Fold this protein.
Amino acid sequence: MTSITAYEPGASQLLMGNEAIARGALEAGVGFASAYPGTPSSEIIGSLAEVAGEMGIYVEWSVNEKVALEAAAAASFAGVRAIVAMKQNGLNVASDFLMTLNLTGTVAGLVLVLCDDPAALSSTNEQDSRPIAKWADLPLLEPATFQEAKDMTKWAFELSEEIKNVCLIRSVTRVSHARGDVRLGEPMPPGRQARFASTTVGQFTSMFVPVKHSLLHQKLNKTREIFESSPFNWYAGPEKPELLIVTCGSGWYYSLEAVKTLGLESSVGILKLGTTWPLPEKLVQQHLARTDKVLVVEEVDPFLEGNLKELVGDTFSALGPLTFYGKRSGHLPSFGELDPDRVMGAVSSVLGRERAAVDPEYAKKAQALTGGLVQARMIGFCAGCPHRATLWSVKNALKLDGRGGFVTGDIGCYTMGLGPTGFFQLKTTQAMGSGAGLACGFGKLGRLGFSQPVLAVCGDSTFFHAAIPALINGVYNQSNFTLIILDNSATAMTGFQPHPGTGASAVGEPAPKVDLEALCGSLGIRVEVADPFDLQDTTPKLLDLMQDDRGVRVLISRRKCALVRAREEKAAYKVRVDSEKCRGESCGCARLCTRVFQCPGLVWDSESQTAKIDEVICSGCGVCADICPASAIIREVA
């Protein structure tokens, strides 16, 4: 029995934040769960998928976030509690549907979990998703602890049903991916018969928008009253603090540690808000009246700070003058993650106190660790990654073509093609599918003197998620570009979740496998398939496709992800370096294999001044044997 299904009410489990959210959904009796995988949100639906059969719930990896929300909404319309999860970028995809779903409302509890990524640790931006709650007039909850992550999720389902609308929960990476003790409640089976009341006229349509907009505001006002007594808001500190910290989510832990480290528990109070939109105005005013100095601690944007200032502006006569500190004042950074040290700096600055100094001996040891024992490691593709081989062929084909061609890309493992691991081939990375969309535009500039070949790359999962419309657009508008689909048989960047091209469902059951060649070929365009490990075949195919110039062309570069392949089959080759043939520094452009190709399985031996194979890391793909100009790398059938 897995930890999130343990039937031990009152007992504690060590859970990741995302697992705690999944457990909260189980305790609420969720019956339907959907998502498109995206770090840091993936483990929520992944955890539920593992126990779907045991708990009698339906779980799916949807083709994108908009479809995931639509599918979950259908379950809610039919009376089944549903949860949908996505990262901040995915909210952009789902927002079109969300901005009418808020008007139509819901039936059974529907919880939308948004996992933001401050500092963009695994994203192309650090977008703060909270403003959409304000735009959409929907309730927003922000857990600060792992216990809250579970309890808030359960409570959110009840709130959703009370106001008959979607409830948003916003987590961040340091809550979603850290672990802590969680006291368990009682898991509940779904226990509801799904049935859609089709006789209701206009309820789930965008008819009567002014009336529904008015009703939406009524629901928000009701939510505000509920939030006034929420168990997720509390104050700790003196009756009349010299400084009041107002915080939410991950900022609460940082604030608590900062105040304790500075020894200011008797002079600094902390108001922790778990219900950040709409603000529980009476509660907030009560605590703002305690002081004349307020520091707002939150990630990433000054969302809470701005809402507090709006409230003070509306109630100035009651509260009197207040001085706010935070991101707008420059006391806290307006980008990136926070930490206790940054909060300590802000508190010390506001109060004019000397900042607590780090113990010199501790600082010395820390410096020794970071400066000596911890080696710098460049981000790169795994050993045997097919993307490295594909981009090597792209690099060579573009050079052979000689017309200044380039590659547009988007989000996935292959985003690392921006740097040395992909030989600096990717020139653009925006949103999922944007590589193909940009190529559509570039490919129509011929009449304006544009003559460079355009290659767009996307992963197989990204293709299903967002690139298909761009491909069709290119065909319809007769654009001139080559789309390379990097088919590695997995949503590799976020945890190897299945997708429509893998032949498996979220719960591991067999599923129809969408044929990429047939799908692309049905558009009446040229489609080629290549094995990226076969450089002698892939490079000429790419060159030929670039020089075709007849509308849109597709190359499917197909090889399983090295990590997936390692689980399913043994290495194809045993690879070694013939030290007698290896020219070392004199070879090609000075160590082509280890300095340029940079597979982690190839290492430089400074003693022998030759390349060597790291047998622990090497996946046995054998591609390096083809790129060695001295034929010093030998591959033998394993």
